[in-house]
Amino acid sequence: MSTSEKAATLNVEQAGTNPSIASDGYFSVENLNAYYGDSYIVQDVSFDVNEGEIVALLGRNGAGKTSTLRAIARADEPELRKGEIYLQGQSVHGMKSYQASNAGIALVPEDRCIIQGLTVEENLDLAVIAGEKGWDYERIYDLFPRLKERRKQEGTTLSGGEQQMLAIGRALAKDLKLLLLDEPYEGLAPVVRHDIEKALMQVREAGITTIIVEQNAVAALKISDRAIILDTGEVAFQGTAKEVLDDEALRHEYLAI
Description:
The chain is α/β, with parallel strands linked by helices. 39% of the residues lie in helices and 25% in strands. The protein contains 11 helices and 10 strands. A 6-stranded mixed beta sheet has the order 6-7-8-3-9-10, sandwiched between helices. β4 and β5 form a beta hairpin. α4 runs parallel beside α7. It is globular, with a radius of gyration of 18 Å.
């Protein structure tokens, strides 16, 4: 059986037998097709995410994970040529990135995009120039006490872990409905990664929905409710995070772990 045939079989089986993928209509993508120039990167990707879930979006390098996040956030690239995106019934696919941001979608990219020359608090302030306000300083500092200690320090002089905290805090400063995290554990020491994990679980407890792309698949799965695996731009698997953790053959085939 080919990889695409296996993927189709897995999707049908999961949709038919696993109640964990029943949708509450909170967030959905339908048949996303996105391109970098002539390169067909995201190919007919469809999935649903329920309110308050953490979903791990996984796959090997080049599987289309980051491109899918960027398409959802309505970044300029990749170009979304077909497909629909809905958040709480509101269509997002026709929006520009700033409109998607104002609608409650925040992408925290791998490079974090901390603004040079601005302090921690100024970076937080910048997030709410447009759109509705979300968490205030104190709530963000309760989540990340290190940021309170460094609130007057220039953001780009923070450690990598602290910059990741700031990037997540900046997303929370707006009225956030969907948090998109691209490689949040990249380059972090285990103790700092653990702090980020604890914070993300608190964000989930606050009812915020998160999609996490992470090469450290096991770490992402351990805090996630469900998993979606991409293979060469297509959905190869949807199910619970536990199913992936328990299925060595699946992990080996699609994640090489």
